[in-house]
Input
Amino acid sequence: MAQGAGEVEAGKILVDAYGDDSVVNDVAVFGLVVVPTPGVPAIEGILQLVKAAARVPADAELHCRVLFHPDARRKSPWAHLSDEDVWAAIEAVPRLFGRFGLGFHVGVVRKGLAPKELEDADGVPGMPLGDKQLLWFAFSSALLDLDVRPGFDRTRLWIDPDRTKVPFVGRRRQMRHVLGMKMFSNISGSTRQLQAEPIAGSKPPLLQVADVLAYTAAQALSGQALRDKDRYRKVFAAFHAHISESFPGDGPPPVDVPPIAAA
Output
């Protein structure tokens, strides 16, 4: 029988999700940028507009830890930018990408509310919960909405690979494997497991947008008085991201960003 107009071919990928993480003193964050798969080439073109406006080569990577640290920036293709030029480039990201119906999801762990370790349970080895381990919880929280819609079986996941080895459920694993571990749907009834795609060669460009989302989220959601906090809060607020929190406890939610003024 032919597919109806509203039906989707079984197993067809509908969205590509790009994820990256960021940690500051009191929060661990994972940011996820969700793009309808047919629109990926056009959305990658928007990233090139950001770079063209900043007068950097198309293959220059946009990484906040480089742009916001003068010593690192001086050794990069972004060396000619002033601090204000950097802010102009970063502020353009949510302004431009927010026009195209993308999904922005953030998982956050407030370290003060998280346990220091997990005990052995049901045959699963315990482990200390340092920054790297807490990122797995932030990662899992950011994925929750994708389990509901479009479902894990309709999602292709890309994460920025991190080869750092950390203790995780009984053995030392590279972070790219920790964050790339199979996630099984327990909400939507999907038959497909969600596992990060292997990356050989150049990384997908839209991971750079996830970098901006995660970095600004961590700075904005931190409870500490960090430098340029108000500017980070405004940039993060412009993403209109959906925030999910692990270990929420009884404290106030980690959503302290200003409202966006009407256009």
